[in-house]
Amino acid sequence: xxxxxxxxxxxxxxxxxxxxxxxxxxxxxxxxxxxxxxxxxxxxxxxxxxxxxxxxxxxxxxxxxxxxxxxxxxxxxxxxxxxxxxxxxxxxxxxxxxxxxxxxxxxxxxxxxxxxxxxxxxxxxxxxxxxxxxxxxxxxxxxxxxxxxxxxxxxxxxxxxxxxxxxxxxxxxxxxxxxxxxxxxxxxxxxxxxxxxxxxxxxxxxxxxxxxxxx
Length: 215
Ligand SMILES: [Zn+2]
Hints:
InterPro entries: SAM-dependent_MTases_sf (IPR029063)
Oligomer: single chain
CATH superfamily: Vaccinia Virus protein VP39
Keywords: Methyltransferase, Transferase
Pfam families: Methyltransf_23 (PF13489)
Number of helices: 6
Shape: globular
Number of strands: 10
Protein name: Class I SAM-dependent methyltransferase
GO molecular function: methyltransferase activity
CATH architecture: 3-Layer(aba) Sandwich
Bound molecules: zinc ion
């Protein structure tokens, strides 16, 4: 089944195919970039999103959350030069990754549309940008991706964490898709598409950390 009225919110391709339907929502997959996305009319409203994010209590000093973030922080810290400038995009209410990177001597700005909405940080340029457990919330990920490409210096790193789609059968039993604020689901193929299109190198770490570098 395809829907000629739908456009991929990442690459704007207009031939998405039906991917999955559960009790609450319908999911489509882009033929070009492989993004799986929620039917646009079933995305949460901003006030619903904010109420749910307020329940996410990521403590800056929570050891387990820091261990989770280390899957991205460790390879990123091994690659960036000392005293680099970074932007943690979508930092949420407890910017733990920003704290980890600041402790290692880097200069970190934070941005979050709900919790750190000062857009002046989006006028600077950065040696690296991080976005952990946020890209799956983006309704129009093309918008944030283009922002990152504008803000990232040559040779700059883009470090992401998000659960990756593996197959339709994995998706069908995946708890990750049940969060009503999760609307965009990436896979290795999606990042391979973006890296190839925009001239980035690409590495994966574990099941959910992605590191890209601008060539
Ligand atoms: Zn697409």
